[in-house]
Amino acid sequence: MPVMMNITDLINNLSEESIIAMGLFGIAISFYVLRLVASLKFRINTYEEMDQSGRKATEQDLMTMNGIIDELRFEFKDAHDNIEEELVEHELISLAMTPQFKKLGLNVANALDKQSDSVIDLERNISNIANSISSLNFGSSDSGLPEVNNMIPLLIGKLRGVNDNLKIQSSFVHEMQRDLDLIKRACGVE
């Protein structure tokens, strides 16, 4: 109580100017505190708005990023599925072509065998002709030497024709063999 009395005594002893000055000082402090509170509220509102707009921007960025990820995932899955389909289709084609390649290989081998047989027959015929010519007696006039002389150019012409034909067939068969090997490599058929 003595402190309360002292305040009451102090207030009673103050002059009017002091009380007015203290009142104005109290109003000024109240005004300053109200301005400070208003300023702080304004800052808080500004920060809250910035926080909300930042959240919205982050949410929009996340939605955009999720959309891009979904598009990339779809494109990757689509490309993956297409590659799988193409690989399966390629493998089925390779499997379907394997018998045809084997048949073509057999045909090429048969053609080479026929060529080889033709060359062997030609060598045999040439050997027979050579033996026939060597057994002729050139001493007599009726030995048929003029006939042999006439036959030799014809025989040489036929041999050249056979040789040219063999060369053409051989190059054709080798070309077919090379093409077959390239096709086999391209299709993965061994």
Walkthrough of the structure:
92% of the residues lie in helices and 0% in strands. The longest helix is centred in the middle third of the chain and has 120 residues. Helix 2 runs antiparallel to helix 3. The relative contact order is 0.05. The protein has 190 residues and is mostly helical. The protein has one domain. The N and C termini lie far apart (116 Å). The chain contains 3 helices and no strands.
Helices and strands, with pairings:
Layout: H1 2-13, H2 16-135, H3 145-187
Helix pairs in contact: 2-3
Overall pLDDT level: 80
Largest sheet: none
Helix content: over 70%
How many alpha or pi helices? 3
Kindly state the number of beta strands: 0
Shape: rod-shaped
Low-confidence stretches: none
Domain module tally:
1
Strand content: under 5%
Helix and strand run: HHH
In angstroms, what is the radius of gyration? 57 Å
Output the structural class.
Answer: mainly alpha
State the distance separating the first and last CA atoms: 116 Å
